[in-house]
Amino acid sequence: MLFAKVIITAADKNNDYENWRDVLYDIGMSLIISCDRYYILNGQLTIPVAEEDSPILGQLTNQPWVFVTDNSSILAQSRYDREESIEDIHRVCAAYVLEEDIFLTSPFDITNGINPQHCTRYCGNTIDNDSTIDPQSKIIGPLGKFVESMVDNKYHNANKYAEKTYIIPYLQRYSKIIDTESEESLKKLWGDYEDLLKGKNLFVKNPFRKDVSGCLDSTQVMGADKYNPFYIFELLETNPVFDYWLYQIPRFLLVQEEIRMSYETRFFVVDSNIVSASGRVIDCVPTQLSIDDPFHYAKKSVQHQSKSGDNQEVVDNTYYDSMFDYVEKIITTVEHHEKDTVTCVFDIAWSPDNQSPILVEVNGISNAGLYGCSAQAIYQKLYDNDCYQGLTLSDCREEMSNLVNNI
How far is CA 95 from the centre of its chain? Predict the structure, then answer.
């Protein structure tokens, strides 16, 4: 570590090995975080933010890596996105408070994202764009697909929540992962449709990636008297949103009964503690208020399920307290079955039909958007909990090597 070497060089050369080791221990550790939107300007790390969006950052605009600009070229090169760029500013600030030696890498870069060898290093206000990452650096995340599965496995594979029998009651609707290459699995869904789902729309998504999801009119295909072995593919053709998959339809699909949901809210849970919450509202990005109070936006949401490009009014969520209690019940249930603490993200909504909170989905903490949640509160709790249970870059590389060797 460059940071370590500077301090060790200043140590008394007569110190023995144990004293040198103590110096290493005292300086803390490096952290690796994901940051997609940064830009190197005049040798300095900057995360551009459009001038019209900058007021919501409050005091964070004074940080040396925040660059307020209306330069369209710089905004384009940093792939500026109001929501994600502001989130990245908060992530860097949250990590830098914990350790002044952080590595930033992008999950979208095929070299850096899958197995990063080099990335931008921010250490003591200096930039090193050709710094080999310390293999013992701790992952504090999120870090995209590169470590997502490893993080989820450490926390009982949150993406498989629909397969866990003790979670299903909290979903309060039909929910099943089917294997499109298994005739038995396809026939089971067909039979379930006849018994439980007839006449209802189906909500379908890839359970392992957030690439596409949508509702299907099941009556057009599954209302036939005779089982059709290709029905699942014909069913997907009824909604053009699934054209995104083209001929690469995921082998596994999560199929759920479509139901009405309101006031969707995101809860970040670390070590079985709810550390921050926010309505899943793009307009409610983190602000200085999120730093001051990680639950500032918890009771703000939109009434109806979010749709792409909608402009719903942000309103008070009168059901928030019931949702909070619901999450605590889920945490207790998971702890009982997994015999371990819970670290993941729960999306909860209000069901107007059931007149109760309802679990929308469970996300791994490594890739969940913040909305108005506090990166500072989340990272602090992860840091106190030894980040992702001690997950280091070395662990990730070993796992990657094992995957390659087993192909």
Answer: 16
